[in-house]
Task: inverse folding
């Protein structure tokens, strides 16, 4: 008999993971989906469904979108689904004890870092911001903390020089899906035991705010270039020009010394070179507010 499985996830990262579970119905029966409520998005501020809800609806799966998991009615609704296993991938909320204790095989999380590094909401973004050469995915057993539970296994992946948060998310989500499908059978058969994390080695990945995309040219050029990549697709790296806010979509570092942070030094080969605290930053692709993408020049 397939295991009754509840899936909890919200963004694009979770989509390949749910798809992987749906691809093996002989092993896992998805009894329901828990995802975040629809959010206002876009210029028109229209309600937009999370990517997981879109996939779940197309697969005729039951979807729950509670504002809070702490409400007794929500916990009762989840309990009525009688899950034996809960799989979580970037859901966005900490699970209360009543839900953690519900499935007999536990709550298994697919986390986009090599734990205990970058616990929290934005591990992919923070790995790029910190200039890490390698990141990965960890399969872990959830507890009441924020990504503090013992881990089953992990898989590492290099961060390419051109990786944005969007491209790295896509690669890590596929890696996470493959690792989960490989690991879950061993977990439910108790053939794989989790290992406690080294909490003293933990680092944290707080969620970015919209203002975190603002580029401060007093900083070194390599840090600014990483911030641009880390802020794609959200919140977007930006500067203010005399004509308004400009999103920076692609840039490169230069080695020339700079004594004028924030000043345009030269324009060559459709690249606008800006002085930084250390080095120079070459703006290549930009999008002025209300306009389409164009070369920086």
Result:
């Amino acid at each position: 008999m397939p295991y009754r499985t509840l899936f909890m996830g919200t963004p694009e990262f979770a989509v390949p993971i749910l798809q992987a579970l749906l691809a093996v119905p002989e092993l896992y029966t998805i009894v329901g989906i828990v995802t975040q409520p629809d959010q206002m998005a876009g210029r028109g501020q229209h309600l937009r469904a999370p990517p997981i809800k879109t996939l779940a609806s197309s697969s005729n799966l039951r979807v729950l979108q509670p504002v809070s998991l702490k409400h007794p009615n929500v916990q009762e609704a989840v309990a009525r689904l009688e899950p034996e296993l809960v799989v979580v991938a970037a859901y966005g909320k900490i699970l209360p004890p009543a839900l953690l204790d519900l499935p007999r095989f536990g709550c298994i999380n697919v986390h986009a870092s090599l734990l205990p590094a970058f616990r929290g909401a934005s591990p992919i973004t923070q790995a790029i911001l910190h200039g890490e050469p390698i990141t990965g995915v960890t399969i872990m057993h959830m507890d009441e903390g924020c990504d503090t539970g013992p881990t089953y296994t992990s898989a590492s992946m290099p961060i390419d020089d051109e990786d944005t948060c969007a491209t790295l998310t896509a690669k890590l989500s596929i890696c996470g899906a493959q690792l989960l499908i490989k690991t879950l059978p061993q977990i439910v058969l108790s053939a794989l035991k989790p290992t406690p994390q080294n909490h003293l080695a933990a680092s944290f990945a707080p969620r970015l705010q919209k203002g975190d995309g603002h580029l401060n040219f007093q900083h070194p050029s390599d840090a600014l270039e990483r911030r641009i990549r880390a802020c794609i697709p959200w919140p977007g790296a930006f500067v203010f020009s005399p004509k308004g806010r400009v999103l920076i979509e692609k840039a490169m570092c230069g080695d020339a010394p700079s004594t004028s942070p924030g000043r345009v030094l030269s324009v060559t080969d459709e690249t606008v070179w800006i002085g930084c605290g250390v080095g120079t930053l070459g703006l290549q692709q930009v999008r002025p507010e209300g306009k389409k993408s164009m070369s920086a020049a």
